[in-house]
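Still learning. Any example?
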Amino acid sequence: SPAVLSLFDHHTNVPVRQNGNHHEDPCRSIDTHTQILLAMLDQVYHSPSVLASGFDSTYALAELYDSHGLVPHVPGTSWQTQFGHLFGYGATYYSYLFDRAIASRVWRKHFSQDPLNRE
C-alpha cells in the first residue's frame, strides 16, 4: 500500500514506487499454477503409491506435468531430487497456497483500508 511504502521513502532521494507490483505481475497465475503442481506432487510422493516396488519419482513427476502442467516434462531431467521442500514438508506443501489465501483475506478484511492503524 502507498501508506506503508511511504515509510521507506524518507532516507533516499529516489521515491519508492507507490503501487505494489503484485497486481501487475503477469506471472502470478503461473506461479500459483506451479505451486498447485508442487502440492499435487507432494501428495503423490507421500501417498501409499511410493511403496510399490516399481515406483519412480521422475515418472510420477513427468506424468503430473504432462497431464496438468503448462509446460511438459523434459525427459532426462529429475529436478525434484534437488527440491528439499518435497521431503521436509511431508504432504503439507499445499500449505503455501493455503497460507497465501489466509494472508490475502486478512489483509483485505483488516488492513487494506488503513494499513497503519494499530487498533
